[in-house]
């Protein structure tokens, strides 16, 4: 589940071309008097992080010859652990160059220096407003990083925006990136994580983009499924889905159950449970260890969240889609924002900065579904709290 962001993974022709384009862009940027920004776009599972890890390995190899000052940033504590762990496997890499964005910004302001190249994974997680609780005092993390760097390489996916305080869109991104700089973009198209046909990717995208419930072909007593090679199932019963997932985990490993943030959970040291009929399992706990949640064998007995598994690969993922997703009486769903329990995701101190606030909240919920549904390499199991959705698909 972690090899996808290991620096020596083989690249596809598409990825190799993009990597070479970024390297040439960076080489020219280091020689230019202008600041440079390269934006790499792509859906979840298209291999953006694969390119970044190989890019940074090459940059750090060159840095020893050219004395360049490079950093790799990611605003995701679980992913940061993986990058720092991987750094220990390669003598060219330095663990202290892998940082959270706030740490980087505060460090460089303190020492009064600027970086040569800064690589940002999951740039859609950067804060787009100040957050004093997390020691970010400026107004926008990307804006600060550009000020403190000569060349910035960032990965961006608008479908993975999960909080209002890090609310990004293509338009908002364009407003932050200065007009008088060298700027280039590339977009990865091929789905590399999910070994799924186009029809399954389309089913997920139609659901999370257009609220559309596409039909499935096969029906048995326990679930609806597709006739494709990819193991995609919609379950009527959450407990049955979980037991089938455990069987897959025993068979091939690296399989976990996750849920949308529609069930109460508080970081108070106590266990909080997701209950769906006979299904009864606790949310994941805050992970203080250096081992990621997804790597721990015992977490088959917990439910992962969007914050736990974003950016990770699983062989199989089982997704519980909670009460905020409601059948609308036709072949579509609707979003009930009031039932979404992760109100922290909706905290925003500058609400006037985001037009159509309620639509932004609905988009955050749909984004979280899209990310969760695209974790599984070999298969994805889905359960909807609203049983009318299952019945609609069955008809």
UniProtKB/TrEMBL annotation:
User: Where along the sequence do coiled-coil regions lie?
Assistant: 340-367
Q: Which UniProt keywords apply?
A: Coiled coil
Give the SUPFAM superfamilies listed for this entry: P-loop containing nucleoside triphosphate hydrolases
Instruction: Provide the Schlafen group 3-like DNA/RNA helicase domain boundaries.
Output: 35-386
Please identify the protein, giving its name as recorded: DNA replication initiation protein
Species name = Companilactobacillus alimentarius DSM 20249
């Amino acid at each position: 589940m972690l090899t996808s962001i290991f620096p020596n993974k083989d690249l596809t022709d598409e990825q190799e071309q993009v990597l070479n384009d970024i390297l040439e862009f960076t080489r020219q940027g280091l020689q230019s008097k202008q600041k440079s920004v390269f934006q790499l776009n792509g859906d979840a599972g298209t291999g953006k992080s694969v390119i970044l890890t190989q890019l940074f390995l090459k940059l750090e190899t060159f840095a020893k010859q050219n004395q360049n000052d490079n950093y790799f940033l990611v605003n995701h504590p679980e992913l940061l652990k993986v990058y720092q762990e991987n750094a220990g496997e390669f003598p060219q890499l330095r663990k202290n160059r892998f940082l959270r964005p706030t740490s980087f910004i505060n460090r460089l302001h303190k020492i009064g220096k600027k970086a040569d190249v800064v690589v940002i994974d999951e740039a859609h997680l950067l804060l787009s407003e100040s957050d004093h609780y997390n020691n970010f005092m400026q107004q926008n993390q990307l804006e600060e990083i550009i000020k403190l760097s000569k060349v910035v390489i960032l990965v961006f996916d608008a479908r993975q925006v999960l909080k209002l305080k890090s609310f990004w869109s293509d338009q908002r991104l364009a407003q932050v990136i200065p007009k008088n700089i060298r700027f280039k973009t590339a977009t990865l198209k091929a789905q590399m994580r999910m070994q799924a046909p186009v029809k399954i990717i389309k089913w997920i995208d139609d659901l999370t983009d257009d609220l559309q419930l596409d039909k499935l072909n096969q029906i048995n007593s326990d679930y609806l499924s597709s006739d494709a090679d990819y193991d995609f199932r919609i379950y009527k019963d959450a407990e049955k889905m979980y037991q089938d997932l455990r069987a897959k985990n025993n068979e091939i490993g690296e399989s976990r159950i996750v849920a949308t943030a529609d069930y109460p959970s508080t970081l108070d040291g106590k266990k909080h449970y997701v209950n769906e009929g006979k299904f009864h399992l606790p949310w994941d706990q805050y992970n203080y260890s250096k081992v990621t949640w997804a790597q721990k064998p015992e977490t088959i007995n917990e439910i992962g969240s969007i914050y736990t598994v974003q950016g990770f690969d699983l062989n199989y993922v089982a997704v519980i889609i909670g009460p905020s997703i409601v059948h609308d009486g036709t072949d579509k769903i609707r979003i009930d924002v009031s039932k979404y329990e992760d109100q922290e995701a909706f905290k925003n101190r500058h609400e006037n900065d985001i037009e159509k606030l309620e639509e932004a909240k609905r988009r955050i919920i749909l984004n979280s579904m899209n990310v969760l549904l695209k974790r599984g390499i070999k298969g994805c199991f889905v359960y909807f709290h609203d049983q009318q959705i299952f019945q609609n698909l069955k008809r």
